[in-house]
UniProtKB/TrEMBL annotation:
Domain of life: Eukaryota
Species per Swiss-Prot/TrEMBL record: Smittium culicis
GO BP, one annotated term: ERAD pathway
InterPro entries assigned: Calret/calnex (IPR001580), Calret/calnex_CS (IPR018124), Calreticulin/calnexin_P_dom_sf (IPR009033), ConA-like_dom_sf (IPR013320)
Ranges for region Disordered: 202-236, 359-466
GO annotation, cellular component aspect: endoplasmic reticulum lumen; endoplasmic reticulum membrane
Signal peptide limits: 1-18
Compositionally biased intervals (Basic and acidic residues): 205-236, 359-395, 419-466
Protein's UniProt name: Calreticulin
Molecular function GO terms recorded: calcium ion binding; carbohydrate binding; unfolded protein binding
Protein family per UniProt: Belongs to the calreticulin family.
Keyword Zinc among UniProt keywords: yes
A Pfam family reported for this protein in Swiss-Prot or TrEMBL: Calreticulin
Disulphides: C104-C136
Length: 466
């Protein structure tokens, strides 16, 4: 009843052409059943429905989760009906949660043709669009690749992806007027024209081929300075001269050693070959360039005329845990916006709050552990110092003393008693020290193992990238 004319009009316009070709929020238990696992290789990782280790809402947060470490994933799901990109604006939107604190892994979606074979789907399969985040080490980007005349074209300047552990919503809009928008969490990350931000079309302007450089065009930046003349006798200055300081050695025997000659040294007056000075050319006209004219061969034909039959996920990840969710492919931004608001926007703040709480709890736990470790280390250190002191005092005793001690043993029981006590005390200390050492060793081993695994994974990822 409260609808005014304007919103009625928008409703009408939206409902005429608006169509959803694919929509999936993974809320149904069998929602993975329409995703076909590729058989293009044997080691494709398993996907699972999970809300992640922590979530804003157990049910709503459930999504398609990459569940195995260091794996390729190649899955696709058919659209409800094929989408002709020739006749429709393209709106592809989905959320990605790198819950695992991503080190290296893609989270993008490919739009596959209706002729695609899901069982053969792999990295080489043709697609019309590839869109979404991709992170590896310090390198983080949002791909927006458009296939044009069988060539995949990356954006000239790719936007950065977010690497935090929250759920982020990525939206790609490509309109029939060849403008585009990339949104991250509802805000425009990039927008503009396809012609400017991808090298898809030929250059709009070219140098006029009918123009030639005029004969009198002076493009010498500098010219010789005619006032600069070569000094007289300049060429007579020798490069080397006889060392004036050299003297004939007193034991030099002309008969035996031959005539003495003083050694040569570099002449300080020698300035090299004479060169005339250069000065700025007052007639310099700059580099010549032909006038730019509109490129007669410019064309934007064939742009995104493919059809889409499948949504494809074809990525590699080192650490598992990436969650894809809330996927929608439509020709109407309003549809995607409404879907995004329902599935993602309403949960964002809750997720941020929960993540903050978890982070704080983990921080407290870490600090407590750190403090315990520090105390243990201090204790071990102190014990070691005391040990060192004791060793110092009692140190070098000749081996023979043992016999003497045995003698003393019988003679002075009290002394031996004290000795035994001391020994027991030392033994206990030694034990404590050994324990602390063992613990530290174990910890170091664990850390080393973790690092080694990580390095191995990184290497594998690198290999894969190559
Ligand atoms: C990009 O977005 C800005 C801000 O919304 C808008 O002013 C501009 O017209 C957009 N550019 C294109 C090419 O759509
Ligand atoms: C979704 O939410 C945003 C932000 O509140 C709002 O601007 C937009 O109109 C909403 N979309 C729809 C279709 O209601």
């Amino acid at each position: 009843m409260k609808l005014n004319l304007l919103s009625l009009a928008t409703l009408f316009v939206a409902s005429v052409n608006s169509k959803i070709f694919f929509q999936e929020d993974f809320s149904s238990e069998d929602s993975l059943s329409r995703w076909v696992k590729s058989e293009s290789r044997k080691d494709i990782g398993e996907i699972k429905l999970t809300p992640g280790e922590w979530s804003a809402d157990e049910k709503n947060s459930i999504g398609l989760t990459l569940s195995e470490d260091a794996r390729f994933y190649a899955y696709s799901a058919p659209l409800d009906s094929p989408m002709s990109l020739k006749d429709n604006d393209l709106v592809l939107q989905f959320t990605v949660k790198y819950q695992q604190n991503i080190d290296c892994g893609g989270a993008y979606i490919k739009l596959l043709p209706p002729t695609a074979d899901p069982k053969a789907f792999n990295g080489d399969s043709p697609y019309s669009i590839m869109f979404g985040p991709d992170v590896c080490g310090a390198d983080s980007k949002v791909h927006a690749i458009i296939n044009h005349n069988d060539k995949n074209n990356e954006m000239i300047k790719k936007p950065l992806a977010l690497k935090d552990q929250l759920t982020h919503q990525y939206t790609l809009v490509i309109k029939k007027d060849k403008t585009y928008e990339i949104r991250l969490d509802n805000s425009i990350l990039r927008n503009g024209t396809i012609a400017e931000d991808w090298s898809i079309f030929p250059p709009k302007e070219i140098s006029d081929p009918s123009e030639t450089k005029p004969a009198d065009w002076d493009d010498r930046k500098t010219i010789p300075d005619v006032t600069d003349v070569k000094p007289e006798n300049y060429d007579d200055i020798p490069k080397q001269i006889v060392d004036p300081k050299a003297e004939k050695p007193s034991d030099w025997d002309d008969d035996m050693d031959g005539d003495w000659e003083a050694p040569l040294i570099d002449n300080p007056d020698y300035k090299g070959e004479w060169k005339q000075k250069q000065i700025d050319n007052p007639d310099y006209k700059g580099e010549w360039a032909a006038k730019l004219i509109p490129n007669p061969d410019y064309t934007e034909e064939n742009f995104l005329e493919q059809s889409v039959g499948f949504i494809g996920i074809d990525v590699w990840t080192v650490k598992s845990g990436t969650i894809f969710d809330n996927i929608i492919l439509t020709n109407d931004f309003e549809e995607a916006s409404a879907f995004g608001n329902k599935t993602w926007a309403d949960y964002v703040q809750k997720e941020i709050d929960i993540k903050k709480k978890i982070d704080e709890e983990e921080k407290i736990k870490r600090e407590e552990e750190e403090s315990i470790r520090k105390k243990q280390a201090e204790k071990a250190q102190k014990e070691e110092e005391e040990m060192a002191k004791l060793e110092h005092v009692e140190m070098p005793e000749p081996a023979n003393d043992e016999k003497d001690l045995e003698l003393e043993d019988e003679l002075k029981p009290e002394a031996v008693n004290a000795e035994a006590k001391k020994e027991a005390k030392e033994e206990a200390k030694e034990e404590a020290k050994e324990e602390a050492k063992e613990e530290a060793k174990e910890e170091a081993k664990e850390a080393k193992k973790e690092t080694k695994e990580h390095v191995k994974e990184e290497k594998e990822a690198e290999k894969d990238e190559l």
